[in-house]
Amino acid sequence: MEEGPPTETVQSEGFELPPGPAPGEPALPFGRSVTIRVPARHNARLQQIIDRVNRDDELYAYWVCANVNAVDRLRMSDHGPVHVQIVANVALRLLRLLTASGISPNVVRNYGLSPDDAEVVVVLASLLHDIGMAIHRDDHEQFSLFLAAPKLRELLDGLYDPPVRTILAAEVLHAIIAHRANGRPLTLEAGIVRVADALDMAQGRSRIAFEAGAINIHSLSAAAIERVEVTAGEQRPIRIAVTMLNSAGIFQLDHLLKEKLKNSGLEPYVEVLATVQGEAEKKLLEVFRLP
User: Fold this and answer.
1) Segments making up each domain of the chain, as ranges
2) What Å distances lie between residue 64 and 30, 72, 113, CA to CA?
3) Rounded to two decimals, what is the model's pTM?
4) Strand ranges, E, within the chain
5) More reliable by pLDDT, 101 or 202
6) Which range (16-25, 79-88, 156-165, 274-283) has the least confidence?
7) Disulfide check for 46: which of 40, 154, 167, 273 has CB 3.0–4.6 Å away?
8) How far apart are CA 270 and CA 95, in angstroms?
9) Separation of alpha carbons 170 and 193, rounded Å
10) First-to-last C-alpha distance (Å) of the chain
11) Neighbouring C-alpha atoms within 13 Å toward the C-beta of 54
């Protein structure tokens, strides 16, 4: 199984992160191509699935539609192919750190499948978890389920026999629905996707609302996050190290990451370390006036 050195960061896992959409420009026009890349060379089925994903025009169009709703219409951070690629890579990193520490995924424990199959589950769930945003932000997790179900049959077809394909599809759908607010993951894989989704907050990722003029604690705290590193921990299998430009970033950790970690099943395995970079904090806001 492919494992990077303990000090490897998420951003260096086999690809350069493409830029997200800039404020005021279309979220993801069709002429702009984003290729999904994850470190899968030692997992042949996962690599085949990624190849299929990158040839799937319908799936790409769903990501475009999700981004139009998120970025253009709601002034949120992006929910398209850049976001899901980051989540997929973070999720794969989390899973590999856990399995390297002897922690078995649920598809291994419950069904006798392999750790490679667990990688398929977390990557597919990461790639499909937000496609329901193409329909609406409200209840998008439920919308993602019925868009993802037929897509899973296409992406898994011929790679597994029908019973195993059905098991994997069910596990992916469970991970998708469990990433919602107050979601209740019942598997290690679902908990991983839930936490990985929250970790897409590094520099340039959660700043769209801030740069577009939405000034609130969510946008200010997001702008304060400089980088996120996922490495092997000293006391626990996983360390999440967050570097901030300003202590406002604590809100992201206390109200967002903390909520995603809670009841994820990953709490015993994760240590979180947050530091403010430099001696002086970066000024994020000159003046704030109440309306």
Assistant:
1) 10-196
2) 7, 11, 34
3) 0.82
4) 225-232, 238-244, 270-276
5) 101
6) 16-25
7) 40
8) 12
9) 15
10) 55
11) 13
CA distance 243 to 75: 25
Name the amino acid, one letter, at 156.
Answer: L
Which of 278, 276, 195, 282 lies closest to 242, judged by CA?
Answer: 276
Residue 117 CA to residue 244 CA, distance in Å, equals 35
Strands 238-244 and 225-232: antiparallel
With the C-alpha atoms ordered 273, 278, 283, 284, is the resulting torsion angle positive or negative?
A: negative
Residue 50 clears pLDDT 80, i.e. is over it: yes
Residues 6 or more apart whose Cβ sits within 8 Å of residue 53? 36, 59, 127, 155
Specify the residue for token string 């999720």.
Answer: 91
- Quote the strand ranges of 207-269, DSSP E: 225-232, 238-244
CA–CA gap between residue 130 and residue 84 (Å, rounded):
8
Q: What share of the chain is helix, strand, coil (3-state, %, to 5)?
A: 50, 10, 40
